[in-house]
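Database export, one record per block. Field names are fixed; values are copied verbatim from the stored entry.
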Amino acid sequence: MALVCLLVPIATPVVAPAAAQSDTPNWSGLDARSYSAPIPPAGGLISSVPLDPTLSISGAADAFRILYSTIGQHDSPAVSTAAVFVPRGAAPAGGWPVVAWAHGTVGLGDDCTPSALPRSQRDDEYLSHWLDQGYVVVATDYVGLGTPGLMSYLNGVPTARGIVDSVVAAHRLDLPLSPQWAVVGQSQGGGAAVDTARRASEFGRGAGLDYRGAVATGTPANMQRIIEGAGPDLVIPEVGPVANAYTAYILAGLRDARPDLDIDSVLSPEGLAAVKRAETLCLAPLADELATLTPAAFFNAPLASIPGITGALDSYMGTATSGYDRPLFLGAGLLDRDVPPSSTLDLYNQLVAAGQIVELRIYPDQDHSGTVLASMADSTPFLQRMFAPH
């Protein structure tokens, strides 16, 4: 494994196959882009509507789009949306347990909102699998996608809050739900699942929930050290032009979360333009638009030259290596060139060294996306054990 880690290039971190981003967003009659009404305490269910059938998934008997309250990146009240998918058949005694789905990179603009677009074939199969296993799936969009503000890309704390609050809000629907729940995520969502795992019990305290565990694949962990090294001399080997889009999303999210850092001061004219476009363009069109650049071209000075950047990055996107109160499942494909397998392997070693309960599965023949479906053979019994009576 150590040899594999050395051979895998360090790539800018996060992507998942996008949904049909050429489609016009369909808000299912619940358009919250300009929401300005009072915001109830976090976890409140503000509104719910049936999800347009064209946006549902093949395994769902019913589906809803919800608007709920949470805490945003500036530690202030915010709203987010989510899709709630209900399995076929009757609920078990005690209600359906819940799986919260944390999606991968789609972009920061409202036109990229997952619950307003058709799911990719892979995500349809993956989420339908969990429905077939008897879980209700709650799929948040993250604050800022289809709601006011900019989605805080890779910002661990508000993302975790939004995921936990989506589950709290789903329990306010007229559905027979068990208090037991888990989180699963891929790529950007793999990082979000790990962030949520670290804080699920804390953020859900008082809501009557029973958090059981997390599944994360293609996980970008400890990426703050890579980002800290960004600058005009940055070299990222063996990655395609899409790395420019990832870089732009990270910088846009960090700039919005920490305006005091003056991120613009180290950006070149090309970088300033790229970060501005990243605020609205979805992944595929942004990658196409930035294809002639390199991440190094975004900078006229090293990011590390900004005073306080190390602590800011740790707070914004650092990965906790201890303090988890439930088991974690980590899956990594050795052919992954979007998130290096070393990211997951290093995190696993750190968690083991800290005495955390973690299960690692390696998929030698799988790339970043392929690991999602390949991991089901292992993550399914893992979650079954987590939900079993203790």
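Remark 1: The first strand starts at residue 45 and ends at 50.
Remark 2: Residues 224-316 form one domain.
End of record.
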